[in-house]
Amino acid sequence: MNIKAPALTPLFRSDAQGEILARLFLNADRTFTVAELARAARTPYASAHREVARIVQMGLASTEKRGQAVEVQVRRDTPTFRPLAELLTLSYGPAVVIPQHLAGIAGIEKAYIYGSWAARREGEPGDAPGDLDVLIVGNPSRSEVYEAARIAGTVLGREVNPRIVSPASWESADADPFLRTLRERPLVGLELQEN
């Protein structure tokens, strides 16, 4: 099977590989099950298992069996840890880092990345994304959202621009030209559950 190179970082074999590596490298203090990595990468379990096996074979991560699950953790003691973590932060990092900072803010029902980063993530060709546009659906504290965006932007090394819309506005997006356009363009949903 011939898979098209990812538009975010063509150095990686696939977006699933990039997503799995990003989860591991940008959460170096955590372990993940293969099933968790498969869900995060939106890929079948068997594909995630193969990617994890490659990552372990390259010496970038280690595994440990706990009951029926296999837990995976990145190895920080390798010379490639830091440069790979930096590359992953720039490419796949937004979908990992932004949710970490938004999780726990009351009133957020949904969150998405839109704009050029979402377009590249969904395979549209174009220039490398600059800033990051985030749509927040709900009624959260604006100050908490903007502070979380500021901190996430510092970690990611680029500006994170949140836009908050009410659930009613999002549901009736056809009435608003901006929201209608957003629904027609690539949106990358963010998983906001706390770890």
Characterise this structure.
With 195 residues, the chain is an alpha+beta fold. It has two domains: 15-92, Arc Repressor Mutant, subunit A, CATH 1.10.10.10; 95-189, Beta Polymerase, domain 2, CATH 3.30.460.10. Helices cover 44% and strands 18% of the residues. The chain is built from nine helices and seven strands, in the order H-E-H-H-E-E-H-H-E-H-E-H-E-H-H-E. The protein has helices spanning 15-25, 34-41, 45-57, 81-91, 94-102, 116-121, 142-156, 167-171, 177-184; strands spanning 32-33, 61-66, 69-74, 108-114, 132-138, 160-165, 188-189. The strands form two sheets. A four-stranded mixed beta sheet has the order 6-5-4-7. Helix 2 (34-41) packs across helix 3 and helix 5 runs antiparallel to helix 7. The protein is globular and about 50 Å long. The mean pLDDT is 90. This is ArsR family transcriptional regulator. It comes from Cryobacterium frigoriphilum.
